[in-house]
Amino acid sequence: MRLLLLAAPLLAGAMIPPPLPIHLNRLGFEPGDAKIAIVHGWDVPYDWKLVDAAGKTLLSGKAVLYGKDEASGASNLQRVDFSAYRGEGEGYRLIVAGAPSEPFAIRRNLYAPLARDALAFFYHQRAGVPIEARFVGQKWARPAGHARELAKCFTGKDERGTEWPACGYARDVRGGWYDAGDHGKYVVNGGISLWTLLNAYERRPNAFPDKSLKIPEAGNGASDLLDEARYEMEWMLRMQLPEGQHVRVPVGPFKPLAPGQNPWTAAPADFVEIDAGGMALQKVADRNWTKLPMPPQDDPEERLLYPPTTAATLNLAAVAAQCARLWKNVDDAFAARCLGAAKSAWGAAKRNPEVLATNSFTGSGGYGDRDVSDEFYWAAAELLVTTGADEFAQVVQHSRHFHEDVREPSWPGTAALGTMLLATRPASLPAAEVKRLQSAVIAAADRFLNDAGGNGYAIPYIARDYPWGSNSSLLNRAMILATAHDLSGDAKYRAGVIAALDYVLGRNPMNVSYVSGYGARSMQNPHHRFWAHSLDKKLPGPPPGVLSGGPNSTNMSDDIAKAMKGRCAPQMCWADDIHAFALNEVAINWNAPLFWVAAWADSD
C-alpha cells in the first residue's frame, strides 16, 4: 500500500523535484549559443521554465529523457534545452520540477574575462621573478622562486639504481613557467603549452594588444600575449645545448622488465657519447620531491638539468619555428634567433633521432615518450610554414601522420598540432593536400560530436576510461571543433565547443566548476605548493581562471584517488583535495587550451 501511495502522484503527472541540483554552465551563456542543462530524475519528463531576475517566465517546456548514463553513473538523466531563448540579461534561473537553478547570465562577451584569467595563470607560474602585487593583488604576490638558476647536469644514481656518468656541464636556465603544482620546468610540456598560446595569437593577432594584461611587459608596444609567450620561449632557448657539446645518454637495449614492472621506468643498459649540440635538455627540476606546502622561494632542493632528448629537441624546433614567424616585424632580431635555434634543433634531432626520456628520476615528472614520429611531423610542419623549404614539405608528406585520422593533441601526441597548422595555412602545400587535411580535421570534429551522443552530459568526449587531465583532453578536442567551425562555418561545431566549456564550468555530475573563481561552487584546493590555503592559512588558494585536471578513472595513483578506485563512475572520479595530484593538479598544458577555447568562444 505504501508503494502505491508513493507511485500515485507520479502516475497522476505530478512533478517530483529532482534529487540533485540542476547542472549547467555556472558562468552563463552567450545569446546565440546552445543552452543545455542536465538533471537527475525519474523516467517521466520534468516540466521546466526559464525565468528572468523578476521571476517572469520567458520560456517553458518538458525535459528530454536520456536514461542511464555510464559516464556519470546516473540511472536516469534528463536534458533541458532552452537554446531558443536569445535575450540578454543577468539573474536568469532555470526552474525544473519546481526546483530553481542558481542565477546565471545570458550576454555577449561572456568568455572574455575567463580568457584573460586563464592567460594570467601563466604570469602566476613564472619562475625567476617576483610575482608582484600591482599585477595580481597582495594575496597572490610572492618573492621570486629560483631567481638565480645555474643548474648542473644530473650525475649519480637514479631511483632505479642506474649510475649516470659524470657530465661536467652547467647552464643558466632561469625563467620560464613552473609546469604544474611542483617546481619542475619541462621542455616537452612547455612546448605544447607555448604552441597553444602562440597559435591563439596567430589566429587573432590583435586580441590581446599592449596594456591589455596585467604583466610587467605591458607598455612595451608589443602584444601582451606575445610578451607572456616570450617569457617561456626565452627559457626554452636557454635549454638548448651549444654546438659542439657532447654528452653521454642512455641507449637500448633496455633491461628486461620484471613481472608487473612499468616499462617507462626501465633502467637503460648502457650509455653512449653523442654530439648533442643543438639538442634541448628534457627538464630542470629538483633532485627530490618537496613537501606540501612549499612556496617556490623556499624550495631547499638542489636544481638539476636532466639529459637532452629527441622529443624535447623537436618541441624546441617546432615552437622556435613558430616564434620566428610570429616575431617577424615585431622583433626581427628575436625572430632570427628563434629561426637559428629551430634549424639547429632540427639538425640535432635528425642526427640523434632516438634519444628517449626515462622516467627513472625522482623529484620531477618524466614525460617519457617512446614514439617521436609525431614530434618530427609537427616540427617539420612549423618549419615548412615558416621557411617554405622543400625539405620540410617532403618530411611532412612522407610522414604517416600526414594521412592518419586526427586525434586531440596532447604532450605525447602532437601530430594534430601540425595538421591544424597545415589545414589553416593553405599556401604551404598543394591545394589538394590542404583540402584533404581540412577534411580530416572536420572528420575528427564529427567523431567528437558523435561521442556526445554516448554520454548523458552531451559533451564531445568518451564515456569511459577518463585519463589524467581529462578536462584538458576535452578542451583539446574543443580546439579541433573550433578549427572545424573556422574551416566549414557549420554552427554544430561551435555548439560542441560550448558543450566542452559548459562541462568544465558546471554542467557535470560533480556539480562543480573545475575553473577556480568561476561559479558558486568552484575548485578551491588544487595540488599546488603555493596555492595551499588548506594546509597553511597564510598561503592563498588559487587565483581565478585555474583549471583542475578533472576526473581520472585510469591512473588513480594518489591516496585520495586510491580510496575511490572501483567505486566511482568515470566523471565522478574527482575530489577537490590538495593531496589528490592525480585528480586535482593544475598544469600549463591544461590551462593553455582553456585559454585558447575561451578566447575563441569570445571572438567567434
Q: Can you offer a commentary on this structure?
A:
By secondary structure, the chain is of the alpha+beta class. Helix content is 35%, strand content 14%. Strands 1, 3, 4, 7, 8 and 9 form a six-stranded mixed sheet that branches. Strands 13-10-18-17-14 form a five-stranded mixed sheet. Strands 2-6-5 form a three-stranded antiparallel sheet, with no helix packed on it. Strand 11 (156-157) and strand 12 form a beta hairpin. Mean pLDDT is 93; it is low at 1-15 and 253-258.
Offer a quick outline of the entry.
With 604 residues, the protein is of the alpha+beta class. The chain has helices spanning 2-11, 112-124, 133-136, 187-203, 224-238, 310-326, 332-351, 373-387, 390-398, 415-424, 431-452, 470-488, 491-504, 559-564, 581-584, 588-603, and strands at residues 28-29, 36-40, 47-51, 57-62, 64-67, 77-81, 89-96, 99-100, 104-106, 150-153, 156-157, 163-164, 170-172, 185-186, 246-254, 268-275, 280-286, 303-309. It contains 16 helices and 18 strands.
Name a few traits of the molecule:
16 helices; 604 residues; globular; five-stranded mixed β-sheet; 35% helix; six-stranded mixed β-sheet; alpha+beta
Broad structural category: alpha+beta
Q: Helix count, per DSSP?
A: 16
- The best one-word shape is globular
Helix proportion range:
25-40%
- Give the termini separation: 58 Å
Low-confidence sequence ranges: 1-15, 253-258
**Biggest sheet architecture:** 6 strands, mixed
DSSP strand (E) fraction?
5-15%
Mean pLDDT: 93
SSE layout:
Blueprint: H1 2-11, E1 28-29, E2 36-40, E3 47-51, E4 57-62, E5 64-67, E6 77-81, E7 89-96, E8 99-100, E9 104-106, H2 112-124, H3 133-136, E10 150-153, E11 156-157, E12 163-164, E13 170-172, E14 185-186, H4 187-203, H5 224-238, E15 246-254, E16 268-275, E17 280-286, E18 303-309, H6 310-326, H7 332-351, H8 373-387, H9 390-398, H10 415-424, H11 431-452, H12 470-488, H13 491-504, H14 559-564, H15 581-584, H16 588-603
Parallel strand pairs: 1-9, 10-18
Antiparallel strand pairs: 2-6, 3-4, 3-7, 5-6, 7-8, 7-9, 10-13, 11-12, 14-17, 15-16, 17-18
